[in-house]
Amino acid sequence: MSQSYVSRSRYTGLLYVAPALVFVCVITLYPFTQMIYMSMFHWSLLEGQSEFRGIGNFVRAWDDRQFWASLVFTLKYTLYLTPILLVLGYLAALLTAGRSRIQTLTRGVVFLPVVIGLGSSSLLWYWLFDQQVGLFNRLLVDVGVVDSPPVWFADAEMALWGIIISVTWKIVGLGMILFVAAIQSIPDEVQEAATMDGASFWRRTWLITVPLTMPTITLFIIISAVPSLLAFDQFFIMSAGGPRNQTISSVFWIYNTSFRNFRLGYGSALSLILVGMIFIGAALQITLMRRNRDA
After folding, report:
1. Quick one: average pLDDT of 180-188?
2. Cis (ω within 30 of 0) for the bond into 113?
3. Would you say 250 and 274 are in contact if contact means Cβ atoms under 8 Å apart?
4. Is 244 left (phi over 0), alpha (psi -120 to 50) or beta?
5. Is residue 48 classed as helix, strand or coil in its secondary structure?
6. Average pLDDT over residues 31-43
7. How many CB atoms lie within 10 A of CB 106?
C-alpha cells in the first residue's frame, strides 16, 4: 500500500469527522473553557469582567449554605427517582419483551411520553396537580385515597413526590425500551434450557435475565442519575423552588446566582464544582460495576 494512499485515506477520514469536531468544539469545548475562565473572575452579567479572584469563587462556595442545601436536595431527588425508574422500567420490559401485537402496542404507549419535551410534560402535570381543576387530584378523591384535593406544591415533600411522579411518567418508557432490547438479545436456548430444568419465570429472571442485562442496567443508572443531578426544568416550572426555597435543585440555584443575581463568575465556579462531583460519581460507579462483573 503506497504512502500517498495512506495519507489520502487519513485526510479523507478527517474530512468526514470535521463537521462533528466543529460542532463539539463550538457547542461544548468553547463554552466549557469560557466557564473555567469566568470562574476565576468577579464577572457580573451587567458589568462584565472585573477583578481577578483566582480560586476565590470556589472558596466562597464552601460557605454558601443554599448551594449545599440545594445539592443535598438534588441528591435526595436522584436517590429517590433512579431506583423507581430502574424497577418500573425493568418490570415493564419483562412484561412487554415478547413479540405479540399487544406487547408491541403496550411498548409504544408506554414510550410515547418520552418524545414529549420535559418542559411540556412538567407544565401538563402542574395543571394535573392543580387543587381546583387538576384531574389527578379529582381521581384521588373519586377513588377514596384522599377526602379533599391536596395542595401539592405547598409542602416540600409533596412537591418532591409530585415532580417524581411526573418525571417517572415521562422517562420510564426509555428504560423499558433499553431493557427490552437487552432482554431480546438473550439467546432463546438459554431461557428454554432453564425452563426445561424447572426454573420459574422469576427464578429465570433473577439468575439469567438480570445478570446478562447488567451492562444495560449500569448504562441506564448512569443516564438516569446524571440528568437527575442536572435537573432544572421540572423544578422551575412545577414548584418554582418553593415553598421557602426547599425544592431548589443545584442547577436551579446556579441559574438564580448567574441570571437573577447577575454573578456569572460565581455561578461558573458552582457549575464546575457540580460537574466535578458528577464526573467523580459516574467514574466510581463505572469502576465498581466493572469490578463486580470481573469478580
Report:
1. 89
2. no
3. yes
4. left
5. strand
6. 88
7. 16
Q: What share of the chain is helix, strand, coil (3-state, %, to 5)?
A: 75, 5, 20
**Residues 247 and 239: beta-carbon distance below 8 Å:** yes
Q: How distant is the alpha carbon of residue 62 from its chain centre?
A: 26
190 Ramachandran zone, left/alpha/beta (phi>0; psi -120 to 50): alpha
Q: Does the pLDDT at position 204 exceed 80?
A: yes
φ/ψ of residue 117, rounded to 5: -60, 145
Length reported for the chain:
295
Inter-helix orientation angle 264-294/214-229, to 10°: 170
CA-angle at 259, arms to 258 and 263, nearest 5°: 35
Question: Are 57 and 43 spatial neighbours (Cβ–Cβ below 8 Å)?
Answer: no
Q: Where are the domains of the chain?
A: 34-63+263-295, 65-237
Name the CA radius of gyration of the chain, rounded.
24
* Residue 134 amino acid letter: G
pLDDT tens for residues 83-131?
A: 999 999 999 999 998 888 998 898 999 999 999 999 999 999 999 998 8
3-class DSSP string for 161-184: HHHHHHHHHHHHHHHHHHHHHHHH
Burial class (CB in 10 A: 0-12, 13-18, 19+), 222: middle
Decide: 190 and 110 in contact? Cβ < 8 Å: no
Taking a C-beta distance cutoff of 8 angstroms, is the pair 39, 265 a contact?
yes
What CATH number labels 65-237?
1.10.3720.10
Q: Is the distance from CB of 89 to CB of 174 less than 8 angstroms?
A: yes
- The three-state secondary structure class of 141 is helix
Residue percentage of the chain with pLDDT more than 90: 41
